[in-house]
Design a protein that fits this description.
The complex is a heterodimer of chains A (about 525) and B (about 130). Chain A has helices spanning about 10-20, 35-80, 90-105, 125-130, 130-150, 175-185, 215-230, 240-260, 300-310, 315-335, 350-355, 360-370, 380-385, 390-400, 420-425, 445-460, 470-480, 495-510; strands at about 115-120, 155-160, 165-170, 190-195, 195-200, 200-210, 235-240, 265-275, 280-295, 295-300, 345, 375-380, 405-410, 430, 460-465, 485, 495, 515, 520. Chain A is an alpha/beta fold. The longest helix of chain A has about 45 residues, at about 35-80. The termini of chain A are far apart. Chain B has about 130 residues and is an alpha/beta fold. Chain B has helices at about 30-45, 65-70, 85-95, 110-125; strands at about 10-15, 20-25, 30, 50-55, 60, 75-80, 105-110. Chain B has a five-stranded mixed β-sheet with strand order 1-2-4-6-7, sandwiched between helices. In chain B, strands 3-5 form a two-stranded parallel sheet. The termini of chain B are far apart. Classes of the chains: A alpha/beta (about 525), B alpha/beta (about 130). The interface between A and B is medium-sized, with 17 and 17 residues.
């Protein structure tokens, strides 16, 4: 190939390559009409540059696409991290952020926010009895109702299983309270989901924010107010007051003390006899937990049992009661040889059946002390029995199969149902103490108690009248056909050693009443 | 009076059953021109696949978009690219190498050799 002095194509080709190398992929060189090898190289470089340009553009487009996808995924992750998957409401993290933002605005002069905390009443029972699908539908419906009650600027959040919150901004305490009350009203109508109708209520705590308050304090105080609403019988709104905080602190410290009391000898059992009305013989005892606090003295069961339930100590407390009762029963039996039908009654709570290993605890206690399972009667209220979830019902069936008896406690106190009495697999029905009032003077009331006793009898169960305080009541009950009774008239609950003495006296004399050394009275129902 | 520019391409059906596509010398074949060419070839073939001789001698360039069009299936059952210069060879090999051609395609500098190959390729394809 000849190249004349005027042919500058190679120099221009070098310039083209330099231009492309510097990043200008749009650079091109026109080939000459000669179409020779130099033009071939020029066309080749042009086409390679174009290829490179297209490849780069394609790569850039793909990178941009992937980046957009990543950003979208990141936004979705962010949204998921801040919202509740079931209801689509803000979650606790987002609520905390919004509270922080609101408090920052307050420090700059905006009105303080108000936090409304709601805990659903009756939700657990819906979940347990009808399953999680129905429970979820209820939570979604509650979320929708709360969103309708709140304003655009407010944040509605789901902060726990059945716990919701509304953060109210830029409003007066009066208006914020109206929103809380509207929320309470909004939850009252039953929730329809397909053919399922559910009813829930809410215990609502309200905390009006203030300057220099932290998000943690706002949440804690609203929580305290919510617990106060629960303590006041649920389905109401309580505004936080500092006194509530003191009460909550005190409960917290009592709960800690109760935890340690379970591992020391502060917790003991007292026993109240169950008496056969015709003979006056003691046919069993009910074990009742007592807490002798080192500084506060005797703490009433009405105080520490609900606290144990709230703080998750009920399982430990219940196990402790069963172990002690069986052990003390074995001690009495070793000294006196109790009749085969003599049984010890122990109060139980649904949580004991649903969590932990109640069957194992009972079996171990029985084996360790060589006591027959038929000597143990577990007592539970009708509400407790009907609220047992599937796991609780299995535990109950296992215990029944092992020979443990079941007593229905407090029958006739509330909306007791005869149908339930047939369905619930109980052996003994304890007729509530409220039915013992006016027994001697009100004959209509006597008929009612008689009907209950006869009904229990007709179902092949055993009725025990509870709360018998005087001889008149005992006489009436005997006349009504009630065979067993329990109450102060026969004996107050007494410590194990005194119970042993009562049992000894019962065995040796068979004749009652008698006064014992401790001043406890045990009476027959003889007039 | 402005002279009428020559048409960018001509497409004709030869007596031996080949289709001939001839590009005007000095032309840069763009995507649009490539699509026009394919449409014209399809029209001439009238649904019958035929071997095609592409006379690309003195074509200035073929854009990438045009090469993508040539990579799509048309009425041509085999394609012989006929050129003369080094430029033709480079362009033809970009068409062959960079794009994935859907039918047998080769570059020739001799028309008789191209015709023989096309006829053999046409027989093999049953055209």
């Amino acid at each position: 190939m000849q190249r004349g002095p005027e042919d500058s194509r190679l120099d221009r080709l070098v310039d083209l390559v330099v231009q492309i190398a510097s990043g200008d992929l749009s650079a091109r060189l026109q080939p000459s009409p000669a179409g020779d090898s130099i033009d071939g190289v020029i066309v080749g470089v042009n086409m390679l540059a174009e290829e490179l340009h297209v490849s780069y553009s394609d790569l850039e487009r793909r990178v941009a696409e992937r980046t957009a996808q990543l950003e979208q995924a990141q936004q979705e992750l962010h949204r998921m991290a801040l919202t509740d998957a079931l209801t689509g409401l803000a979650n606790r993290t987002l609520l905390n952020d919004r509270i922080e933002q609101a408090l920052t605005r307050t420090r700059r002069g905006a009105a303080p926010p108000t936090l409304v905390l709601l805990d659903l009443d009756g939700f657990k029972s819906i979940n347990d009895r009808r399953g999680h699908a129905v429970g979820d539908a209820v939570l979604v419906a509650v979320a929708q109702r709360l969103q309708k009650v709140a304003r655009e600027t407010d944040t509605v959040a789901r902060v726990g299983g059945d716990e919701f919150a509304v953060l109210i901004l830029d409003t007066t305490p009066d208006d914020a309270l109206k929103i809380a009350e509207r929320a309470l009203r909004a939850l009252r109508p039953p929730i329809q989901d397909g053919d399922q109708v559910s009813s829930v209520g809410a215990s609502i705590g309200v905390r009006f924010g203030s300057l220099n308050q932290t998000a943690h304090e706002l949440l804690r105080d609203a929580d305290t107010a919510m617990y106060a609403a629960k303590a006041r019988g649920r389905n109401n709104v309580q505004i936080f007051a500092p006194a509530m905080h003191t009460a909550a602190l005190s409960r917290k410290s009592v709960a800690q003390e109760l935890r340690s009391a379970l591992h020391t000898n502060q917790l003991t059992l007292h026993y109240q006899p169950l008496v056969e009305l015709t003979s006056g013989r003691i046919i069993g005892v009910e074990a009742l937990a007592r807490w002798q606090h080192p500084h506060r003295g005797a703490v009433p069961p009405g105080e520490f049992v609900p606290l144990a339930e709230e703080t998750g100590l009920m399982g430990d407390l219940g196990n402790r009661v069963i172990l002690t009762a069986v052990q003390e029963l074995a001690t009495w039996n070793a000294r006196l040889v109790l009749p085969a039908a003599f049984r010890v009654h122990v109060n139980t709570s649904p949580v004991q059946f649903q969590e932990g290993d109640l069957t194992g605890t009972v079996r171990r206690a029985m084996q360790q002390h060589d006591v027959s399972a038929s000597r143990l009667v577990l007592e539970m209220t009708e509400t407790g029995l009907t609220s047992l979830d599937a796991a609780g019902a299995r535990t109950l069936a296992d215990l029944r199969a092992a020979g443990v008896a079941l007593a229905l406690d407090g029958f006739g106190a509330g909306c007791s149902s005869i149908g339930q009495l047939r369905r619930l697999a109980v052996d003994t029905v304890k007729v509530d103490r409220s039915l013992m009032e006016n027994l001697e003077v009100d004959h209509q009331h006597r008929h009612l108690v008689q009907a209950i006793v006869q009904l229990v009898d007709a179902l092949g169960l055993t009725a025990v009248a509870v709360g018998v305080e005087n001889g008149g009541q005992a006489t009436q009950l005997r006349g009504l056909g009630c065979k067993l009774a329990q109450g102060y008239y026969f004996s107050r609950p007494v410590p194990a050693d005194q119970m042993l003495e009562l049992l000894r006296a019962d065995q040796s004399r068979h004749v009652l009443p008698r006064d014992d050394a401790a001043g406890h009275h045990l009476h027959t129902a003889q007039p | 009076m402005t002279p009428v520019p020559p048409p960018p391409m001509t497409v004709s059906l030869l007596s031996d059953g080949l289709v001939r596509l001839r590009w005007t010398a000095g032309l840069t074949v763009t995507g649009e021109l490539a699509r026009d060419a394919v449409a014209a070839v399809d029209q001439v073939c009238a649904g019958q696949p035929r071997p095609m001789l592409v006379d690309m001698a003195a074509t200035a360039a073929v854009t990438r978009e045009a090469r993508v069009v040539f990579g799509q299936k048309s009425s041509a059952s085999a394609i012989a690219l006929l050129g003369k210069s080094a430029v033709d060879r480079v362009i033809a090999n970009f068409v062959l190498g960079v794009s994935a051609v859907p039918v047998p395609t080769r570059f020739f500098t001799s028309e008789p050799a191209a015709v023989v190959w096309l006829q053999q390729a046409g027989d093999a394809a049953g055209a």
